[in-house]
TrEMBL record, chain A:
Membrane-traversing stretches: 12-34, 66-83, 110-129, 158-179, 200-221
Keyword tags: Membrane, Transmembrane, Transmembrane helix
Matching InterPro entries: Cytochrome_b-558 (IPR011138), SQR/QFR_C/D (IPR034804)
Claim: Transmembrane helix is one of the keywords in the record: yes
UniProt-listed CDD domains: SQR_TypeB_2_TM
Protein name: Succinate dehydrogenase
From TrEMBL, chain B:
Stated name of the protein: Succinate dehydrogenase
Domain of life: Bacteria
Species of the source: Marivirga lumbricoides
InterPro entries: 2Fe-2S_ferredoxin-like_sf (IPR036010), 2Fe2S_fd_BS (IPR006058), 4Fe4S_Fe-S-bd (IPR017896), Beta-grasp_dom_sf (IPR012675), Helical_ferredxn (IPR009051), SDH/FRD_Iron-Sulfur (IPR050573), Succ_DH/fum_Rdtase_Fe-S (IPR004489), Succ_DH/fum_Rdtase_N (IPR025192)
Family membership: Belongs to the succinate dehydrogenase/fumarate reductase iron-sulfur protein family.
TM stretches of this protein: none
Cofactor(s) of this protein: [4Fe-4S] cluster; [3Fe-4S] cluster; [2Fe-2S] cluster
UniProt keyword terms in alphabetical order: 2Fe-2S, 4Fe-4S, Iron, Iron-sulfur, Metal-binding, Oxidoreductase
Domain 4Fe-4S ferredoxin-type span(s) in chain numbering: 150-180
Length: 223, 249
C-alpha cells in the first residue's frame, strides 16, 4: 500500500484529505442545523429531546457519528501537518507583505479561523455533547433526557450567546473560502460550474452560520 | 524623481543579511525599475562600495530572470509585468521602496536579491519533456489539434518560470509553475506518452524541493506576470490523483 501512503502524504494528497473531510463537515452542518430548529418549537423541548435521544441511540446515526469524530480529528491533524510544512517552506519571511492586493482575507487566515472553530467545538462539546452522553440530566415529561433545559440555560447567559455568535462569524469566514476551495482541490474547475460553486459557497457561508447564530439569539430574547 | 530605497543586502548564502537604506535622486519616471537599480549601482561603484546584485537578462519581460519582491509584492505593484517592465512612473515621488529577494526554502539566496531557482530546473528534468521520433521535420498540421485546446495549452506554456508564484504564495508553494508545465503537455497529443508518469514525477520532485502546499488563495495567479490561471492547479490535481489511482506502480 505504499503508493497510497505516498499519495496521501504528498502536498496534493494532504489537500485532498482536507477537501474530502471538509465537504463531509459541510454536509454535516446542514443536518445539525435542521435538528437545531427544533429548539424553537413551542413545546417545552419535548420534540428536541426526542430528537436528541434518537441521534444518540439509533445504530446508523451512531455509526455515522464515529465517522464524524474521525473526520473532524483528521481535518484538524492534517491542517497542523500542512501548516508546519508550509511554514518550513519559507524559513525567512518578508518584511512587508501586501496580501490584500492579491488574495482574500479568509484564504490567508484559514488556520486562525479554523482554530476559532476548534475552540468553539471544545466548549460546545463539553457543554452539550458531554452532558448528553455522561452528564446528570433530568428527564422530561416523555421520559427523555431533558437536553433542552441544558441548552436553554446556557443560552440565557448573554456572554455565552455572544461567544456562540462570534464563533459563527469565524465559521462563516472559514466556509467562505473553504467551500469553493474544496472543489478546486478536487480538480473541479470549469468555466461552466466554478462561478456557480463560488456563489453557492458564499451563500452557504452566510446563510448557515447566520441560521445557527439566530437560534441562541431568539432563545436568549425569549428567556 | 527621488526615492528612499530599502534594499536587502546579503554577502552570500551563509551571511545573515539585513536591510540597507539608500537615497537616490534624479530618477526619470520613464526608467525601468532595473535601470533605476543600475543608476544606484553606478553610484555605489563610484563610491567603491559593493553594487546590489540582482538577476536580469532580456529586459523585455520574456525571460523570467528578474526577481524582485517590491513593496510586498513580487515584480512590484503593476499587474501582468516582470520587474524589468515596471517603470518608475508606477511609484510616487519621495516614496520609500522596500526591495527583497524571493523568499523560499527551495530558493536559497545567492547574494543580495539574486536567488537560486534551479529547483525549478530539477522539477522540469523530472518530467517536463516528451518522447519524439528523431528524423526530418514533421509537416505542419500533421497532428490535428483543436484550436481551443491549442490555445489553452499555449496559455499554460506562456509561463516563464520566474518564480513569482512561489514568492507571492504564503506557503511558498510552486503549484502554479508545476501545474502550468504539466498542463501544457498533458493537453496536447504529443504529451500523452509520459502523461501519468509526468504528473507523478514532477509533483514528487516539487515536494522533495521543499515547496509548500496550496491553500487556493489565488495570490500566485494574481501576481503572475503571464496571468497563468488557477484552473491549471485544478488540472494538475486531476492529473496527479488520476495517475496515482490508475498507474501500474
Amino acid at each position: 500500500m505504499s503508493w497510497l501512503s505516498d499519495t496521501l502524504t504528498s502536498t496534493i494528497g494532504r489537500k485532498l484529505v482536507m477537501s474530502l473531510t471538509g465537504l463531509f463537515l459541510i454536509i454535516f452542518l446542514v443536518v445539525h442545523l435542521a435538528g437545531n430548529f427544533q429548539l424553537l418549537a413551542d413545546d417545552g423541548g419535548l420534540a428536541f429531546n426526542a430528537y436528541a435521544k434518537f441521534m444518540t441511540s439509533n445504530p446508523i446515526i451512531k455509526t455515522t457519528s464515529y465517522g464524524l469524530y474521525a473526520f473532524i480529528l483528521i481535518h484538524i491533524i492534517m491542517s497542523i501537518a500542512l501548516v508546519r510544512k508550509n511554514k518550513a517552506a519559507r524559513p525567512v519571511g518578508y518584511s512587508e507583505v501586501k496580501g490584500s492586493a492579491n488574495s482574500s482575507f479568509s484564504s490567508r487566515n484559514m488556520g486562525i479561523l479554523g482554530f476559532i472553530i476548534f475552540v468553539f467545538l471544545v466548549i460546545h462539546l463539553r457543554n452539550f455533547w458531554y452532558e448528553m452522553h455522561w452528564g446528570a440530566i433530568q428527564m422530561d415529561d416523555a421520559g427523555n433526557k431533558d437536553l433542552y433545559k441544558v441548552v436553554s440555560a446556557a443560552f440565557s447567559e448573554w456572554w455565552y450567546v455572544a461567544i456562540y455568535v462570534l464563533c459563527m462569524v469565524g465559521l462563516a469566514f472559514h466556509l467562505s473560502h473553504g467551500f469553493s476551495s474544496a472543489f478546486q482541490t478536487l480538480g473541479v474547475n470549469h468555466s461552466k460550474y466554478t462561478p456557480f460553486i463560488k456563489k453557492l459557497g458564499i451563500a452557504y457561508a452566510i446563510l448557515i452560520p447566520f441560521a445557527f447564530a439566530l437560534i441562541p439569539i431568539i432563545m436568549f430574547l425569549n428567556s | 524623481m527621488k526615492f528612499k530605497l530599502k534594499i536587502w543586502r546579503q554577502k552570500n548564502n551563509q551571511d545573515k543579511g539585513g536591510f540597507k537604506t539608500y537615497d537616490l535622486d534624479g530618477v526619470s519616471s520613464d526608467m525601468s525599475f532595473l535601470e533605476m537599480i543600475d543608476v544606484l549601482n553606478e553610484q555605489l561603484i563610484d563610491k567603491d562600495e559593493d553594487p546590489v546584485h540582482f538577476d536580469h537578462d532580456c529586459r523585455e519581460g520574456i525571460c523570467g530572470m528578474c526577481s524582485m519582491y517590491i513593496n510586498g509584492e513580487p515584480h512590484g505593484p503593476l499587474r501582468g509585468v516582470t520587474t524589468c517592465q515596471l517603470h518608475m512612473r508606477s511609484f510616487s515621488d519621495g516614496e520609500t521602496i522596500t526591495i527583497e529577494p524571493w523568499r523560499a526554502k527551495a530558493f536559497p539566496v545567492i547574494k543580495d536579491l539574486a536567488v537560486d531557482r534551479s529547483a525549478f530546473d530539477r522539477v522540469i528534468q523530472a518530467g517536463g519533456y516528451i518522447s519524439v521520433n528523431t528524423g526530418g521535420t514533421p509537416d505542419a498540421n500533421e497532428i490535428p489539434i483543436p484550436k481551443t485546446v491549442a490555445d489553452e495549452a499555449f496559455d499554460s506554456a506562456t509561463c516563464i518560470g520566474c518564480g513569482a508564484c512561489v514568492a507571492a504564495c504564503k506557503n511558498a508553494s510552486a503549484m502554479l509553475f508545476v501545474s502550468a508545465k504539466i498542463s501544457q503537455l498533458s493537453m496536447l497529443p504529443q504529451g500523452q506518452v509520459e502523461r501519468d508518469e509526468r504528473a507523478e514525477k514532477m509533483v514528487a520532485q516539487m515536494d522533495a524541493e521543499g515547496f509548500g502546499a496550496c491553500t487556493n488563495t489565488g495570490a500566485c495567479s494574481a501576481e503572475c506576470p503571464k496571468g497563468i490561471d488557477l484552473s491549471n492547479i485544478a488540472r494538475m490535481n486531476r492529473e496527479y490523483l488520476g495517475a496515482k489511482l490508475s498507474s501500474g506502480k
